[in-house]
Design brief:
191 residues; alpha/beta; three-stranded parallel beta sheet; 4 helices; 5 strands; disordered C terminus
């Protein structure tokens, strides 16, 4: 059997996204003006794939807020690190939301990168764009996501381990994050 290295650079070209980016220019189909609610294990918003600086030194990831950015303008943690509704420990079965959706399990960051990561170059820097030319996956350690200009709103529903029972509250948060009764999806007439 051949030796295979882990890579996150070939999936997006395989499905033809770079061709769509090029043919849809100048407005592109890169996710510009699109908001994505990522209901998962959270998002490592410090990672360079999401425009972060990659520096974790001295940072804590539990609190009412987190440092937002243009790429990650909002999000929430509905679960807390210890939440696991399948646990025999009654304390772990109770969510302890804290507002900071930092990913401690990795799955949400992987999914978020596939959806809308900027990409990370071989030099370790955040890819800053250029979606209308020829796409060369060999230039990346992490390739751009399918919609690299979309904004990501992580909605953490899992603790660091285990399962979740928080998908419906996450969908409610995605529809009305500030709980003012106005959903982010405009109402449509049923005529």
């Amino acid at each position: 059997l051949p030796i295979v290295q882990r890579a996150n650079t070939s999936s997006v070209p395989l499905i033809g996204a770079p061709e769509v980016w090029r043919t849809a220019a100048p407005n592109g189909a890169t996710g510009k003006n699109v908001k994505v609610g990522l209901i998962d294990t959270g998002l490592d918003y410090i990672h360079r794939d999401f425009g972060g600086d990659g520096n974790y030194v001295g940072k804590t990831f539990s609190g009412a807020t987190f440092p937002t950015s243009d790429k990650v303008p909002g999000g929430t943690d509905l679960a807390g690190d210890d939440y696991d509704p399948s646990s025999s420990d009654v304390v772990k079965r109770t969510p302890k939301p804290d507002g900071d959706p930092m990913d401690c399990a990795g799955h949400g960051s992987h999914v978020g990168g596939t959806i809308a990561g900027f990409g990370v170059t071989k030099a370790g820097t955040t890819y800053t764009g250029g979606y209308t030319g020829t796409f060369d996956p060999s230039l990346f350690s992490i390739g751009p996501g399918v919609a690299p200009e979309a904004k990501i709103y992580p909605i953490r529903v899992f603790g660091c381990t285990g399962s979740t029972g928080l998908t419906l509250p996450a969908m409610e948060w995605a529809l009305d994050p500030n709980k003012d009764g106005d959903t982010i999806i405009p109402a449509r007439s049923l005529s």
